[in-house]
Amino acid sequence: MTSKYDWYWAACLGQIQAALGRAAGGLPAAVATPGLRDLGARQSWYGLAEVCGSELVRSSMAHATSLGRTVAASGICAPWPQDTFRLTVGTAGDTVTITTAGPASQAASTTPHRQPHRAPVTPAGELPPAPAVRTAPAPVMAGRAGPEEFYRLPTGLAGGARRLRDCRAGDCPRGGVYFFFEDGEVRSVDGSSRVVRVGTHALTAASSATLWDRLRQHHGHLGGRDPGSGNHRAPVFRRHVGAALIGRDGQPPGLLASWLDRHGPHPAWARQETALEVAVSRHIGAMPVLWLTVPDHATRADVEQNSIALTSRLADGPDQPSPGWLGHHAIPGQIRQSGLWNVEHVTRSCRPGFLATLHQLIQLHQ
Fold first, then answer.
1. Residue 114 CB neighbour total at 10 angstroms
2. Could you tell me which residues are beta bridge partners of residue 96?
3. Inter-residue contact 222 to 4 (CB < 8 Å)
């Protein structure tokens, strides 16, 4: 499970990578960690992690274990495969000191970690690609017929794609599933637009939320006190896009820690958060969107899950994201690897018979 510390350390990887090089050369190496103490209340922030290659061999304390796992999974230690790096968080929580620790040991008092994923080295300042995830072959149908048929079906949806910023409440059905696209994101087979996110709403009978309620959350405020802004602490989509913008633009880790704090902005970063909310609204608002009318919550869940399966590169989807896709800078590895702004359902295969269900829904509500 992803922790609040994982997000923080991911934003520090560029600085940590540079410090590893100094430590490997026998030089003093330390990384300042402003904002770490904002993530919790501790009498002491001391903790350590030892990493060799892409393996976390031992660690102590949750925040240091998260640090070690993040560094190991990123692959930034790969240039020094024989070195074991010791990363020590200072008592005050404001510095990580990095040294070479010699041969890795399996201390009984620490937590062992085995079979880590490997990932290529990334340039300093950039978020790393996610570790490789292996999934079983899709049982839906031979070859890539499933995704190809899927992409042929939504073209008949009533109204056609329009940018989210141009949509209003009366445009869409009360209940449905939406499909986002993104400028520059195309399919390799024919150059048509590829799906970059699938979503829905109200997955329980007790919920009264509408499709427009969810799309409006994604788009942000259309008016009011802060027009063009939004609230990323409600829909996770805005949170992912904002964190990716922070990573892509090299913003400070303190802003990321504030952005990911679900209790509200840290006082020192409130103004920057507001500006970032506007940037997120601009980015999501420019996305073309299609929707499919699906009145009942159980069918909405089925359409969402299986549509994700047919478009995710971790499942049945064949389409690569472009090199410039913002999602490459997202923090969750599921986004970076799947090519979708989705985290849930990206590794599961499509169920047999789903395309027939989808075809019937489109025919019924076209």
1. 8
2. 31, 89
3. no
Distance CA 234, CA 240 (A): 12
* Cα angle: 129, vertex 133, 138; to 5 degrees: 130
- Helices within 142-210 (DSSP H only): 145-152
Work out the angle at residue 240's Cα, subtended by the Cα atoms of residues 237 and 244, and round it to the nearest 5 degrees: 140
**Is residue 58 helix, strand or coil?**
strand
What tokens appear for 62 in the block?
Answer: 């949750």
**Element of type H or E holding 183:** none
pLDDT score of 104: 41
User: How much is the pTM?
Assistant: 0.63
Written as six digits, the tokens of 342 are: 């989705």
Please give the backbone phi and psi of residue 113, each rounded to the nearest 5 degrees, phi first.
-135, 130
User: 219 Cβ partners below 8 Å, 6+ apart?
Assistant: 164, 165, 167, 230, 281, 284, 285
Residue 111 amino acid letter: T
Alpha carbon distances (Å) from 206 to 122, 215, 300: 46, 19, 14
Exposure on the CB side of residue 259, measured as CA atoms within 13 A? 32
* Contact predicate 221/227, CB 8 Å: yes
Strand arrangement, sheet containing 55-60: 30-32, 95-100, 84-89, 47-52, 55-60
Per-residue model confidence as pLDDT tens digits over 181-234 = 999 999 988 888 999 999 999 888 788 899 999 999 998 876 556 667 778 887
Please tell me the chain's helix, strand, coil percentages from 3-state DSSP, rounded to the nearest 5: 40, 10, 50
Q: 20-24, 99-103, 280-284: lowest mean pLDDT where? A: 99-103
pLDDT beyond 50 at 94: yes
Of the chain, the percentage scoring pLDDT greater than 90 comes to 46
